[in-house]
Amino acid sequence: MxxxxxxxxxxxxxxxxxxxxxxxxxxxxxxxxxxxxxxxxTLQGLAELLGVxxxxxxxxxxxxxxxxxxxxxxxxxxxxxxxxxxHPRVLERPIVVNEETRRAAIGRPPENVLEILNK
Length: 119
Prior knowledge:
The protein is of the alpha+beta class. It has a single domain (3-117), classed as Glutaredoxin, CATH 3.40.30. The protein is 36% helix and 14% strand. It is built from 5 helices and 4 strands; from the N terminus they run βαβαααββα. The chain has helices at residues 12-23, 40-50, 63-68, 77-86, 114-117; strands spanning 3-7, 29-32, 95-98, 103-106. Strands 2-1-3-4 form a 4-stranded mixed beta sheet, with helices on both faces. Helix 2 (40-50) packs across helix 4. The longest helix has 12 residues, at 12-23. The chain is globular and about 45 Å long. The N and C termini lie close together (8 Å).
């Protein structure tokens, strides 16, 4: 099973989600998204896999999101994805993708990812 986790090791939910995946005998591909920032196309693809607009997977209480205010391009998904690429801290975490089934889940709570780990 090919699983990718967009991971922030500083986040307890992200760490717990990674532990849960590994407890199921899966060695996921780990993308430390604050270091290996996904490009705009990947960000839009993640939102599509989750079945929500990109805006719905952003952490709106993050200082960078708040500071952007009215300048945030919320009505233009391409521009928003480019902005998120430059401000990855606002991305919800962790995002887990089952590459084989093309399904994704946000690990909040970590147990949310169990449904995409089932074969």
